[in-house]
Amino acid sequence: VTPPGGSVRRARESDLDDLTRLWKEIAAHHAPLDPVFALRPDAGGAIRRMLAAQLADDDAAVFVWEEAAQVVALCTVRIDQAPPIQVETRRAEICDIGVAATARRRGVGRALARTASDWARKRGIARIEVRVAVGNREGQTFWRCLGYGDLLDVMHRRL
Ligand SMILES: CC(C)(COP(=O)(O)OP(=O)(O)OC[C@H]1O[C@@H](n2cnc3c(N)ncnc32)[C@H](O)[C@@H]1OP(=O)(O)O)[C@@H](O)C(=O)NCCC(=O)NCCS
């Protein structure tokens, strides 16, 4: 289902304020889950530079959902090349996806995820990954609904 009244497009430099705001909203969603997700109070500049680097990276793409002249969601994807050890050396990874709280459950996330996977498929990539916090119930449900399944458990312990 394509949500009405908006569309996906590639992000551009002029979107960096909106991208940074949305990225911080994704981080705020994760903050209660584990201290590992806590942001520094002055993180804005570094977030903006990271997003600018993704915009400039030929092996990455940043997509946004725009409706009523507002950018309400972002999705970043990149291609990762491993050394030639395993048969499969190339994969795509969704780095971040976030839909503003006011625009959720209307198919925007699904449209962005589909655009990102189509972008990767057109580059000959056969597999796409995403890292999802175990405690992120919306994220877990969303990705499973889109056909993604478990691959690895990332385990950690505080020292
Ligand atoms: C996860 C997220 C991107 C989903 O975006 P969205 O636009 O609301 O998702 P969609 O409307 O495209 O949902 C597609 C399907 O996923 C499932 N889904 C999405 N959010 C859900 C929720 N909160 N509860 C249950 N199912 C959910 C539903 O099956 C939904 O289809 P349906 O609405 O027809 O039932 C959004 O909740 C978000 O930005 N969360 C905060 C940031 C985050 O967690 N990002 C993911 C990090 S990996």
Structure description:
By secondary structure, the chain is an alpha+beta fold. Helices cover 33% and strands 23% of the residues. The protein has helices spanning 16-30, 44-56, 108-122, 137-145; strands spanning 7-10, 60-67, 70-81, 90-99, 128-130. It has a five-stranded mixed sheet, sandwiched between helices. A hairpin with an 8-residue loop joins strand 3 and strand 4 (90-99). Helix 1 (16-30) crosses helix 2. The mean pLDDT is 96. The site of coenzyme A (COA) has 20 residues, from helix 1, strand 4, helix 3 and helix 4.
SSE blueprint and pairings:
Elements: E1 7-10, H1 16-30, H2 44-56, E2 60-67, E3 70-81, E4 90-99, H3 108-122, E5 128-130, H4 137-145
Parallel strand pairs: 4-5
Antiparallel strand pairs: 1-2, 2-3, 3-4
Coenzyme A (COA) binds next to helix 1, strand 4, helix 3 and helix 4.
